[in-house]
Design brief:
- This is LysR family transcriptional regulator.
- The protein is of the alpha/beta class and 301 residues long.
- The protein is built from 9 helices and 13 strands.
- The strands form 2 sheets. It has a 6-stranded mixed barrel with strand order 6-11-7-10-9-13, surrounded by 4 helices.
- β9 and β10 form a beta hairpin.
């Protein structure tokens, strides 16, 4: 039989605070009511839970067992109440976000600044990493990740899709010439991500607008596991790189990079906001995801 849960919660509060008086103050009910509810609980389950003296309150053996089993119920209800208060009070508090190193670009920082202006009671902790972090173990609220997400224990919300193209520094093109067709890429130095590997070797998928992607062979001079590592080599004139257009925009405008084979397009890179499946999104998480989806740079959402 299920007993009155309120009586159990009153009992847990008494044990935690160490007295009927303190529990009465915390629960904002008369001390006599606290005493009566604990007594009725003991009568209902047929055992004494507390030893009462004029100086001390202590648990019986049965009371200790009952308390250990019931305190998690009280904790769950407290968490639920805090979640409801968050909904009522709006987004606030620390928001822990992980992003790829390659997001250290001029268009992303203003987005975060705009988010902070829109939600001044949210404080951001940004963790940059070139490898996916354990969202639960590292207490990450949101992870921004590019590309496919093989981990089915996570929930992904697509924010944008970034087009990609081929780029090079003017210094590299001055030394090695500019390729005129994708087939010529095989004879150039290329800066390539590890995942470009296929059975036939390393390839870049490319297409003309309106056409289908086709794999073109490349011979990497530098391999890396993060686009940011390739970016420095690209600026140094070490080769050609297939990269997100949005990440290259500032360098192109400054004359540090040139778009090569501009009529050829690489595969789009999806940006996802990822959260752990076991947690319901909090108001602050929903605020960040909604803001990023609404204010991503034009043409990529």
């Amino acid at each position: 039989m299920i007993r009155d849960l309120n009586d159990t919660l009153v009992f847990v509060c008494v044990v935690r605070l160490g007295s009927f008086t303190a529990a009465a103050h915390a629960l904002q009910i008369p001390k006599t009511t606290v005493s009566r509810r604990v007594r009725e609980l003991e009568q209902a389950i047929g055992v004494q839970l507390l030893r009462r003296t004029t100086r001390q309150l202590s648990l019986t053996e049965a009371g200790a067992v009952y308390y250990e089993q019931c305190k998690s119920i009280a904790d769950t209800l407290e968490h639920a109440e805090r979640a409801v208060h968050q909904l009522r009070d709006g987004p606030r508090g620390w928001l822990r976000v992980t992003v790829p190193f390659s997001f250290g670009v001029s268009w992303f920082a203003p987005l975060l600044a705009g988010f902070r202006q829109a939600y001044p009671e949210i404080r951001l902790e940004i963790l940059a990493s070139h490898v996916p972090m354990d969202l639960v173990g590292e207490e990450i609220d949101v992870a921004l990740r590019l590309g496919a997400l093989p981990d089915s224990s996570l929930i992904a919300r697509r924010l944008a899709s970034f087009p990609t193209g081929i780029y090079a520094a003017p210094e590299y093109l001055a030394r090695h010439g500019t390729p005129q067709t994708p087939e010529e890429l095989l004879h150039h130095q290329t800066l390539t991500l590890h995942q470009a590997r296929r059975d036939v070797g390393y390839v870049w998928p490319l297409r003309r607008e309106g056409g289908r992607l086709r794999d073109y062979r490349v011979e990497p001079s530098i391999l890396a596991n993060d686009p940011a590592l390739l970016h420095d080599a690209l600026l140094a004139g070490e080769g050609l790189s297939l990269a997100m257009d949005q990440s290259m925009q500032a360098d192109v405008q400054a004359g540090r990079l040139i778009r090569v084979l501009p009529e050829w397009i690489g595969p789009p890179q999806d940006l996802n906001a990822v959260t752990a499946r076991e947690h319901l999104p909090s108001p602050k998480v929903k605020a960040l995801i909604g803001y990023l989806k609404a204010y991503m740079p034009d043409g990529v959402a």
